[in-house]
Amino acid sequence: MTDKSVTNTDVLKISVIMPVYNGVTFIKQSLPPLIAMLNRQEVCEVIVVDDSSEDETIAIAEKLGAKVIPSGGRLGPGGARNKAAELALGELLWFVDADVIVHENAAKKIIPNFNDESVVAIFGTYDDNPTAKNFLSQYKNLVHHFYHLNAKKEASTFWSGCGVIRKESFIAQNGFDVATYSRPSIEDIELGYRLISAGGKIILVKDFLSTHLKEWRFLNLLHTEVFCRAIPWSRLMLSKTGLINDLNVGIGERISAVIAGLFFLSVLTTVITGLSSSLVAISFILAYFSNRKLYNLFYRRKGLIFMVGGILYHQLYYLYSSAAFVYCYLERKLVLRNQK
Fold it and tell me: In the sheet that 201-212 helps form, which strands lie side by side, from edge to edge?
């Protein structure tokens, strides 16, 4: 590795990069903690990349104290991050989404993890207290929080919602692949794969926390998880790494997905045949025990009714995620057969 070790005297070498498109509501909440870090000299700059916003994003960001640069057209968050990285002064690029409020101590979590020269990137996780209080927002946030807290410390991917990469390594990999991922998708996961393939190490720092501002509704959550996550990630794994045993695609998750299929099959059988619902009850119990740590988190944070709703929705999540993977598997088989 050619990256230089970073010591505690190098705090001014962190550049914060936030891509924004029509994000006035978000940045009024997410920028002030970062500007406070700038004022405390914990970071050397806070760059907002305005991706051709049509609201007052530029004016508000400048008023709050950020350095604003135009993206030069609708590039999407990946392209906007790439543009800012070229201009950034820091040796470390700290990517923060506009709908993410980093915790007050977040900057202090960065430097110690880069004292190891082999570490090229780190990322954190959402806390368990999102601002949106509807069921799906709470559910999705707790799921993200749980899987990151229970994942391996040495990660197999990268997360750009709140993640830091050595600039030298980022430039060497030509940044995010915006040709393949022209819309927000898994460009951060794919970059993580390239960083690791190049010999780098990515660390998941579990107390590197942030609060999520996004409000999830059923249709936008379903579209995001299927078309922006499950399908492109399945294609990436099938073409590059195969199934990994980490995060929400580990072996335990695959078993839970099979049980989810049995649960929905039992429900369908009961509805069609009118037979006893005992099979539904048994499969529901199996579903609970297959991922009881997550569901117990639902119960501790939000109570029994939320837990039951969370279990049921998570079975649906397993169903459409598995369907997306099967679709991509068959798609790849067809493509490979046609190439022969």
Answer: 67-70, 45-50, 14-20, 92-96, 162-166, 119-126, 201-212, 100-102
The per-residue pLDDT for 5 is 36
Residue 279 CA to residue 177 CA, distance in Å, equals 47
pLDDT of 255 reads: 87
CA–CA dist 324, 334 (Å, integer):
15
The CATH number covering residue 208 comes to 3.90.550.10
What range does the domain containing 91 cover? 8-216
- What confidence tens digit (pLDDT) does each residue in 231-286 have? 999 998 888 766 554 555 567 788 888 999 999 888 888 888 876 678 888 999 99
- Specify the number of domains making up the chain: 2
Q: Taking 70 as the threshold, does the pLDDT of residue 170 lie above it?
A: yes
316-330 as b/e: b if 16+ CB within 10 A:
ebbeebbebbeebee
- Contact between 89 and 69 under an 8 Å Cβ cutoff? The reply is no
Q: Residue 242 falls within a domain, yes or no?
A: no
Q: Could you tell me if 317 and 259 are in contact, meaning their C-beta atoms sit under 8 angstroms apart?
A: no
SS3 201: strand
Q: Residue 101: enclosing H or E segment and its boundaries?
A: strand 100-102
Stated pTM of the model: 0.90
pLDDT in tens, 290-330: 999 999 999 999 999 999 999 999 999 999 999 999 999 89
CA angle (163, 55, 19) in 5-degree steps: 15
What is the C-alpha separation between 175 and 81, in angstroms, rounded?
8
- Assigned token pair, 179: 């040709």
